[in-house]
Amino acid sequence: MTQASKSHDPITTQMSDVKARVNTVLELAKSLGADSAEVAMSRQQGLSVSTRMGEVENVEFTNDGGLGITVYRDGRKGSASTADLSEQALVKAVTAAVNIAKYTSVDDCSGLADKSLLAMNPVDLDLYHPHEISTEEAIELAKACEESALAVDPRITNSDGASFDTYAGFKVYGNSHGQLVGYPSTRHSLSCVMIASDGEDMERDYAYTVSREFSLLESAKNVGLQASQETLSRLKPQTIATGKVPVLFRADIANTIWGHFIAAISGGNLYRKSSFLLDAIGNDVFPKFLNISERPHIAKGLASSAFDSEGVLTQDREIITDGALQTYLLTSYSARKLGLTTTGNAGGIHNWLVNAQGHDGSFDKMLKTLGTGLLVTEMMGQGVNVVNGDYSRGAAGFWVENGEIAYPVSEITIAGNLAQMFKGIVAVGSDVDMRGSIRTGSILIDEMQVAGH
């Protein structure tokens, strides 16, 4: 989108208006006695359609948003929010936040992020790519996806539907340090869920594509084809004997392993002493060959952001270098609790890149390295204890023999301890899944306890 067209774009125009509104709210907070304040507002508008067996199931137009304000007064904190952005509602929200601050406890660690760490002039990360599409065109896209899936094989007997979603919106953040920033963004996605039957067996699986830019989405035909192929591959699952075997987490599931690692190094769990990775900076958490980098400023990245939810400037950061932990993930509050400095991770992580150079390979190569063991393609349940690292979750996938997929398996449980699992990573695939905040290939762990039912 050119600079000229941006200036006439409705989202860009709304964002300018909201910045003025945020500034007014900050001034109001000051006039009501707040020592400092911060205001965040987001707005999103879009279209979501879904079809099932060729029939339109849902058409939804979205146009919503909200404003949240936090004020600080004499070491006390008060917060309020409103979806009504009229002047009267904003006055009511600010007044409520100031009143709440009279009754909360004094906390020396609360407060705005340090001014020196803020992104006063954030870079444009090219996250905004609006795409005009009519409701009819969106419906046809979802229908085409389903038609492609249903045509793959006669065992594809039913559909749980196809969905197309397109959203455009913006975020604005301001505080009494004089920071007033914002950015627009878009997100487009297409997904399909299919059902296959073979005798009495019935299985379900899905496929999806997502991007900031509509033209970069996978075609409807390919998404439908992949959904059916995934579903068919699950038919006639077997159970497996209980025992210890190597486990390969496919790339689209591997991010769950990193998600547990993120929880273990997040400031909230650390200052509460609720993590098995307390005091682990500099320690070897993973094998020497593994590196993890955070790159917040990747153009069009799904998790790119020039600043975090506290307005702190995001920056390139090494999380793991040669297997050793380099940093925790901190907000201003958790950093003060720990006597450290925020890492700009208020609100989450920003594009993690997992690299295991010399110990990576294609998906087929990862299967060969696995040899005989379990390939996990679906996880269920939440049996993970970040305090001690104990791990136990339901899973489904495939049994692999001599580097070849032998048959699907279901109703199994995989168990271990995260500290041992991290150290037991043998390889990370080059089959990187780019559809989320963690860009990772498949992960092969040397040994886990697997139990059939």
UniProtKB/TrEMBL annotation:
Where does the record place the Metalloprotease TldD/E N-terminal domain? 37-101
- Note whether Hydrolase occurs among the keywords: yes
Sorted alphabetically, which InterPro entries does this protein's record hold? Answer: Metalloprtase-TldD/E_C, Metalloprtase-TldD/E_cen_dom, Metalloprtase-TldD/E_N, PmbA, TldD/PmbA_N, TldD/PmbA_sf
The Gene Ontology biological process annotation of the record reads:
proteolysis
Its domain of life reads Bacteria
**Subcellular localization, per the record?**
Cytoplasm
User: Which positions fall inside the Metalloprotease TldD/E C-terminal domain?
Assistant: 242-452
GO molecular function terms noted in the UniProt entry = metallopeptidase activity
According to the entry, every stretch annotated as the Metalloprotease TldD/E central domain falls at 128-235
Alphabetized UniProt keyword annotations: Cytoplasm, Hydrolase, Metalloprotease, Protease
The record ties this protein, via Pfam families, to: PmbA_TldD_1st, PmbA_TldD_2nd, PmbA_TldD_3rd
User: Which GO CC terms are listed, alphabetically?
Assistant: cytosol
Record family assignment: Belongs to the peptidase U62 family.
For this entry, the protein name equals: Metalloprotease PmbA
Source organism of this protein record: Colwellia ponticola
The root-end lineage is: Bacteria, Pseudomonadati, Pseudomonadota, Gammaproteobacteria, Alteromonadales
